[in-house]
Amino acid sequence: MPGAVEDYPFGEETAVFRVGSAPDGSPGRMFALVSLTGAIGWVNLKLDPALVTELVATHRSVAPGWHMSKRHWVTVTLDAGMDDVLLTELVEHSYALVVAKLPARLRPSQAAVAELG
Predict the structure, then answer these.
(1) 106: domain range?
(2) Do residues 61 and 79 touch, judged by C-beta distance below 8 A?
(3) Which of 1, 28, 59, 97 can bridge 21 by disulfide, Cβ–Cβ 3.0-4.6 Å?
(4) How far is residue 51's CA from residue 71's CA, in Å, rounded to a whole number?
(5) Beta strand 14-19 pairing with 73-77
(6) Cα–Cα dist 102/12, whole Å
(7) Which run of H or of E encompasses 18?
(8) pTM as predicted
(9) Mean predicted confidence (pLDDT) in 35-57
(10) CB neighbours of residue 75 within 10 Å
(11) Which Gene3D superfamilies would you find in this protein's record (predicted)?
């Protein structure tokens, strides 16, 4: 994703993806957290609250966000029940949602973001 960076503030077991890092070095806002351990992986994604409710109700691989705001985050289990196309759409949604809330000076260029669509 344009302008995204990966870091490990919670240890080597969880990759955190952020966007909107400031010139002063402060980290950007999280849009995805990915488990790097365990037999079955998972990813936490930030989504619109209505989408959280819908996905939790309709997909067995989607649950309210583990250790996150249950209203705004979901945990997606990366098992055979999760469709790759849907997962890609959810990651892009999470990224776009976070980018839209960033101050204009910290947003990636509109051209780079538009290429995602």
Answers:
(1) 4-114
(2) yes
(3) 28
(4) 10
(5) unpaired
(6) 27
(7) strand 14-19
(8) 0.87
(9) 92
(10) 20
(11) 3.90.1150.30
